[in-house]
Write a structure and sequence with these properties.
By secondary structure, the chain is α+β, with helices and mostly antiparallel strands. The protein is about 40% helix and about 15% strand. The strands form nine sheets. Strands 12-11-10-15-16-18-17-19-20 form a nine-stranded mixed sheet, with helices on both faces. Strands 1-2-3-4-5-6-9 form a seven-stranded mixed sheet, with helices on one face. A hairpin with a 2-residue loop joins β7 and β8. The two termini are about 55 Å apart.
Length: about 1100
């Protein structure tokens, strides 16, 4: 059997398709064991292709792979993909057998596409196709050669075959290498590099900064990163462009440009920038004479569009060593750049335009601090489809909704009549869609690609190039506060335009389509700026802007997008910005208002929604608002964001909340009546206290149509945040939300979200500000029974408190040995007795077990302020508290403090002043920072930080539990121990019964929706326990049961579960459900 090496495989891939060579490859590498002697013909006149069934492969892991070949006579396989669903129909044929997957060749006599198609048996699953395109002698085919060699060495099982056609693995490899190269360029200028420490990106100095850092970039690190990011983006764009053959007809133009250059040591300023600015951004007739020195200059297209316009820093000197560009181009040359954006069902194995979004995520290491996370393609596709379905359903009767959904999910026009197609087409032509936190442009590009496929299906003779330009000009809008994000999003739009063009044309300028700004602010320095174009602000009040200015602004904005001439666009841009600046001054009467704003159309302070997108708001607003807004706590950075937005009239504002809550309300403001919003965000708003106002807002001012709570399913690769998708309409609440909740066992639901929702959604009424909890039918039944007989614990004859907060456990929590030492230092029997009563056994959260506890022989010096102790009555305790820090001082090398100032240090440390500790005029440092006293209170230096007025309850029988943890444990204590602040406790009646309930599966079920910490641990606070609905026990039978359970009886624990279930009235199915959770 013949063996292949990398060279022989690359030669096969570079050559035109050969049936003989392919058959040898099937036998020698793929181990095809069921090849037909004569291929069986398959014809399809409609698709203008002739096909052949070649045989099949039976893999060692018992999968059957069908083998097919199709000759494509109409168009190139590079740009034309045979309809996947129609194709799959040909594989389901009893004469061939039933296949789990298919390996298919499409040949147009010049290029050939090798596709692995899976998920073809299950009618409920959408088939997927992953393809390599071969036949280009100029390509390196590095990836398929490596992967096929791995197949040769590891064997052909289904997993290995699928991995050989994996897009995700290739993408990750590319992103990781790209990020390292980017970091190299940044480090060369700044001397710093982001490195990952304990899962977080941290900036570290690696070398001295380059002189260019100050000379060219004014020592601005962000400017350096943005500059290099944009340079990389421009280069990558040209790699896609050369694949089209538009770079002087050379598909390896960038490689040859560098290899043949005599300016490698000044390649950016000497070669790349003349290419960017003098050729790509300048009309041929206006290009400087020097531009002719670049190879193929006469055949380099004029693109303009803003991508290759000079930024302020571009004219400045910036030089990188030649080896930096040598590594960059060597890396890029080794990958295949595809010129179409893959979708979730049909992907070419290579670097497609969607990777630019991943670059945005990977290169902005501090993006996580900005709350920006890259949204997986499956989520984007699902949300785009659901948004369009909701939009199209408006105005149609309920009976038409199923047909609309079926069409959008399949893009199969055959299910529609000609009249229905025209109705949908007319409605989609005018749709207005916006992403107010556009990031890398994932959602707008998802909409563009989906609409493109829909338009093509509804009207097959549509010119795809004109159609995409129409969608981008008339339908899509986006805003982001980050300039780098806006650059990447525009880049993706431009790439989407050139994909379908046969000849290069100047790119449209996206300056007033994809814009930089603060989406949450249409005001600045207290002035409402929402009425510049309408003459009325958001409250309907008249503004003072001149009518002539408003009319001129609206006119210039409308013609700006289509103006191809560079100089005319520049004039229009300046005129528009000057006009808006003039109107702002007219409205505010403040001539100095904008002195800190360099550009009214691109800044981080505000965004003029009703000005820049006046064409939308003149007609009521957007039809669809979609996106993944940032997740940032408003209290972060000293509450800077909370201060910024507190007076911005957001009804959903809460100082303890998150910025995404405000984006929900802002999205609602942007919608026209009947419009739809679809966001993916953190799901904390559904239950957290800070989400109360948002829940109230949504329940009263919107119609929530779909709520998908992902629960514990990790959606974002780079984040552990739990998420939800919410789709609502700007209309009255109809109280029939389709709600569904996922959990960790549903980790594969991303593969087909539509099916998961369809099979698991329940109709739910979210009508108030109470927690939005999604319940299945059985959970709804359990809830009804709990509410029917349960009594909230806050209404029981019990007291619930938090444990003791000392403010400095190192002093107040002591070992048994230290306790004995203190007691032995007592001078009289009376002092010893008083001290024994003062020092009490203490439980920490970690000591709590189910029903009991493991005491760690620790004691609390219980000097509670509520007891008004006189420390002079406890001289042994006082002496200890004024000397406790001696070991830690000596360990830190501060013997001089321990020897001469020990009592002074200890007194300052325990004093509740919040001040820094100073000894002999200098601050004391034990670790990384200066030592401070406990936080400021009115308590005395020897007292605990909390008053503990309920101290007497500690001496009563009680239930003690860990306040924060991933495992629920409730311990019964007969009054011996106190609890630290990591615990809570309850004293009162029926404690044995309550201990059994809370430790049972029923107790765990009652607490399942308790608040969680950022790490996912349950927060079982006093506030979480008080609302629990538990029926009163009819007798004291649980005292004996608890004793048996503590003794280790499993039967007694089972009996307790069923007695409690009887009290609630749970049936057998409900009991089993609770036990399974």
């Amino acid at each position: 059997m013949e063996s292949y090496n990398k060279t022989t495989l690359k030669d096969i891939f570079k050559s035109p398709f050969s049936s003989e060579t392919w058959q040898e490859l099937l036998i020698n590498l793929f181990h095809a064991n069921r090849l037909r002697v004569t291929p069986q013909p398959i014809s399809d006149p409609e698709e203008k292709i002739q096909g052949f069934f070649l045989g099949s492969i039976d893999t060692p892991d018992c999968y059957s792979i069908g083998l097919f070949r199709f000759d494509v006579s109409d168009g190139s396989v590079i740009n034309r993909r045979v309809g996947l669903r129609n194709l799959v129909k040909r594989f389901i044929n009893v004469s061939y057998g039933e296949f789990d997957a298919a390996l298919v060749v499409f040949d147009d006599s010049e290029n050939w596409r090798l596709s692995f198609i899976c998920d073809i048996k299950d009618v409920a699953t959408t088939p997927k196709r992953y393809s390599y395109v071969f036949g280009d002698p100029t390509m390196q085919y590095h990836t398929p050669a490596e992967r096929f060699l791995k197949l040769q060495s590891e064997g052909i099982d289904f997993t290995n075959l699928r991995d050989a056609f994996s897009v995700d693995a290739l993408s990750k490899q590319f992103f990781d290498e790209y990020r390292e190269l980017y970091a190299d360029f940044v480090q060369y200028i700044t001397g710093k590099r982001y490195v990952k420490e304990k899962g977080k990106w941290v900036e570290k100095r690696q070398s001295e900064e380059n002189a260019l850092f100050a000379e060219t970039f004014g020592s601005d690190e962000k400017l350096v990163r943005d500059y290099i990011k944009k340079m990389f983006g421009r280069i990558v764009f040209l790699y896609f462009l050369q694949r089209k053959g538009w770079m002087a007809g050379d598909k390896n133009y960038m490689h040859h440009l560098f290899v043949n250059s005599d300016k490698k040591d000044n390649f950016l300023d000497g070669v790349l920038e003349p290419l960017f600015f003098d050729l790509l951004n300048t009309k041929p007739e206006l290009r400087p004479e020097t531009s002719k020195n670049l190879p193929g200059s006469e055949n380099i297209p004029y693109l303009n569009g803003g991508l290759f316009e000079k930024d302020d820093v571009d004219p400045e000197r910036c030089v990188f060593p030649a080896e930096y560009f040598e590594r960059l181009f060597g890396f890029l040359d080794s990958y295949n750049f595809t010129i179409d954006e893959n979708d979730t069902e049909d992907a070419e194995i290579g670097i497609d335009p969607e990777m630019l979004g991943r670059i945005f995520e990977n290169l902005l290491e501090d993006n996580k601090d900005k709350g920006a996370f890259y949204t997986p393609k499956e989520i984007v596709d699902y949300m785009c489809r659901e948004s369009l379905i909701a939009y199209l359903n408006n105005g149609y009767e309920q009976k038409a909704h199923l047909l609309i959904r079926q069409f959008i999910e399949t893009i199969d026009p055959e299910i529609l009549t000609p009249e229905q197609r025209m109705k949908l087409l007319r409605k989609l032509v005018d749709v207005k869609i916006c992403d107010p936190a556009i990031g890398s442009g994932a959602f707008p590009m998802g909409i563009v690609n989906l609409l493109s496929r829909i338009f093509t299906a509804l009207k097959p003779d549509t010119d795809r190039t004109k159609m995409k330009r129409h969608i981008m000009e008339k339908s899509i809008y986006g805003v982001d506060i980050e300039r780098g994000a806006v650059d990447i999003a525009r880049l993706r739009f431009w790439l989407a335009m050139v994909v379908d063009e046969v000849e290069p044309h100047p790119l449209p300028n996206l300056h007033f389509k994809i814009m930089q700004g603060n989406s949450l602010m249409e005001a600045y320095k207290g002035h409402d700026l929402s009425g510049l174009t309408s003459g009325f602000n958001a409250n309907g009040q008249s503004t003072l802007a001149f009518t002539d200015d408003r009319d001129m602004l609206q006119h210039e904005l409308k013609i700006f997008y289509r103006t191809a001439d560079h100089f005319e666009r520049e004039r229009l841009l300046n005129s528009i910005k000057a006009n808006v600046t003039r109107q702002i001054y007219d409205v505010t009467g403040d001539g100095n208002m904008l002195k800190d704003i360099n550009d009214v159309s691109a800044n981080e302070s505000f965004f003029l929604w009703h000005t820049w997108f006046s064409d939308v708001f003149e007609n009521g607003g957007f039809d669809i608002v979609i996106g993944n807004p940032p997740y940032i706590q408003l209290q972060a950075n000293g509450g800077a964001l909370a201060g910024l937005y507190e007076n911005s009239k957001f009804e959903s504002f809460a100082r303890t909340g998150d910025i995404y809550c405000l984006f929900y309300e802002q999205g609602w403001r942007m919608l026209k009546n009947g419009g739809h919003l679809c966001y993916i965000t953190s799901n904390k708003w559904m239950r957290a206290g800070y989400g109360k106002d948002l829940r109230q807002f949504l329940s009263k001012k919107s119609n929530p149509k779909l709520l998908l709570d992902f629960g514990g399913i990790q959606v974002f690769d780079s984040a552990t945040v739990d998420t939800n998708i919410l789709l609502f309409a700007k209309e009255g609440n109809r109280h029939e939300t389709q709600a569904v909740s996922g959990s960790k066992q549903h980790k594969d639901i991303l593969k087909n979200l539509s099916d998961f929702v369809r099979h698991n959604a329940v109709t739910t009424d979210f009508a108030t500000s109470d927690s939005w909890v999604i319940l299945s039918p059985i959970e709804q039944s359990i809830k009804r029974k709990i509410e029917a007989v349960g009594v909230p614990l806050k209404d029981w004859d019990i007291n619930i408190y938090r444990g003791v907060l000392t403010g400095y456990n190192e002093a107040f929590i002591i070992s048994t040995e230290k306790r004995e030492e203190i007691l032995n230092n007592c001078q009289t029997p009376e002092e010893r007795q008083r001290t024994e009563e003062l020092i009490r056994p203490i439980l920490r959260g970690r000591d709590i077990k189910r029903y009991g506890y493991d005491w760690a022989n620790l004691w609390l010096i219980a000097t509670f302020p509520a007891r008004n102790y006189d420390i002079e009555q406890y001289p042994a305790v006082k002496a200890y508290l004024l000397s406790f820090a001696e070991p830690m001082l000596r360990e830190a090398g501060l013997d001089w403090v321990a020897d001469n100032h020990l009592a002074d240090y200890c007194h300052q440390k325990l004093a509740q002043t919040g001040q820094y500790i100073e000894i002999a005029g200098q601050r004391i440092r034990l670790g990384s920072g200066d030592e401070k006293a406990r936080k400021k209170t009115s308590n005395k230096w020897f007292e605990t930080q909390d008053s503990i007025s309920y101290w007497d309850d500690f001496s009563k029988p009680k239930i003690v539990w860990k306040r924060i943890g991933s495992i629920l444990r409730f311990s019964y204590d007969d009054g011996v121990c106190f609890g630290l602040d990591s615990t809570c406790f309850a004293s009162g009646l029926q404690l044995a019964y309550l201990t059994c309930v809370l430790n049972s599966k029923i107790g765990h079920y009652l607490l399942k929706d308790s608040p969680c910490t950022g790490t996912g641990d349950l927060l079982i606070s006093v506030q979480a326990i008080e609302p629990l609905m538990i029926p009163m026990a009819p007798n004291d039978s649980f005292d004996e049961l608890l004793c048996q359970i503590i003794s280790g009886s499993k039967d007694a624990e089972t009996d307790a579960f069923h007695i409690i279930s009887d009290l609630y009235g749970f049936n057998q199915e409900e009991r089993e459900y609770i036990l399974m959770r």
